[in-house]
């Protein structure tokens, strides 16, 4: 079921979890989700695919798209988690997306202005050609009326027989008349295209002015403090600055992490959906740094 934009979107908690899914919490109270069908865990609520926008372009106000989470740490402050790409960053991704859109818009505006300038130049050239041909037609018509001075001026480069050949002059006039009609049609079409291009450039300029003047304002509600240590935050931030994904602190499955838990907790975590353990917890805090992972078989 696709995400549907509306004035007020439904919260994921208002919808039931898909069949085979279960909601759980770690010892710090952070919610994660268990898919018993594929035997995997995930930080992403499967219902978010219905209720949340899929891209930053679909977001309204301070929304974040599917897979993104904003959290808070007492030492480093606010930071953002991209669960899909398994990266963290201090920079607001909404501001980054906006800056990228502004950059692309300015580049496109430059291209559009250059195209408009070239179109205007071509339009002026055709106008000059039309004026020149119309002037030639006037002089040729004067020649037909016996204006010897105009005859010698316009056709000074032609042969002597062409200067005084009425049929030749009529042919020249007819040829120029056709060119005038063709140029007028081309000019009318180019004028319409110019109007569309000018309107498009004006629209882009207006959008650019609005994007430059409006500052991104985000309402912020302080979330639950993160249990990640300062060293982990520093490590994550270092990877973010270098454009790399944070390495997974443990490559083992979530099932192997349960080995340090009590039997009751391990049993409850691997219990099928719908069992009495509605609020499950991981004993190992390392699970808080994994976006998703197979939690192993029951063997």
TrEMBL record:
SUPFAM superfamilies: WW domain. Residues 15-48, 62-95 form the WW domain. The keyword Lyase does not apply. It comes from the Eukaryota. This is WW domain-containing protein. InterPro entries: WW_dom, WW_dom_sf, WWC/KIBRA_Hippo_Reg. One of its GO terms (cellular component) is cytoplasm. Keywords: Coiled coil, Cytoplasm, Repeat, Transcription, Transcription regulation. It holds the Pfam family WW.
């Amino acid at each position: 079921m696709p995400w549907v934009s509306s004035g007020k979107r439904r919260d994921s908690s208002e919808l039931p979890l898909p069949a085979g899914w279960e909601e759980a919490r770690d010892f710090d109270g952070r919610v994660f989700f268990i898919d018993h069908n594929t035997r995997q865990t995930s930080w992403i609520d499967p219902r978010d695919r219905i209720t949340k926008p899929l891209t930053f372009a679909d977001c309204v106000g301070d929304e974040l798209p599917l897979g993104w989470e904003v959290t808070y740490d007492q030492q480093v402050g606010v930071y953002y988690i991209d669960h899909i790409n398994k990266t963290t960053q201090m920079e607001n991704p909404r501001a980054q997306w906006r800056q990228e859109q502004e950059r692309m818009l300015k580049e496109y505006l430059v291209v559009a202005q250059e195209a408009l300038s070239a179109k205007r130049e071509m339009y002026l050239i055709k106008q000059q050609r039309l004026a020149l041909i119309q002037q030639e037609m006037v002089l040729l018509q004067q020649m037909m009326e016996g204006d010897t001075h105009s005859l010698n001026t316009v056709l000074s480069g032609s042969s002597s027989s062409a200067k005084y050949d009425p049929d030749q002059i009529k042919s020249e006039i007819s040829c120029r008349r056709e060119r005038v009609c063709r140029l007028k049609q081309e000019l009318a079409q180019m004028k319409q295209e110019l109007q569309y291009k000018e309107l498009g450039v004006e629209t882009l300029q207006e959008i650019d002015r609005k994007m430059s003047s409006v500052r991104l304002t985000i309402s912020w509600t302080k979330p639950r403090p993160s249990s990640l240590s300062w060293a982990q935050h520093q490590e994550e931030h270092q990877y973010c600055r270098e454009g790399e994904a944070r390495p997974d602190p443990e490559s083992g499955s979530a099932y192997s992490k349960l080995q340090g838990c009590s039997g009751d907790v391990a049993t409850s975590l691997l219990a099928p959906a719908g069992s009495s353990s509605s609020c499950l917890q991981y004993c190992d805090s390392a699970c808080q740094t994994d976006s998703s992972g197979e939690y192993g078989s029951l063997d």
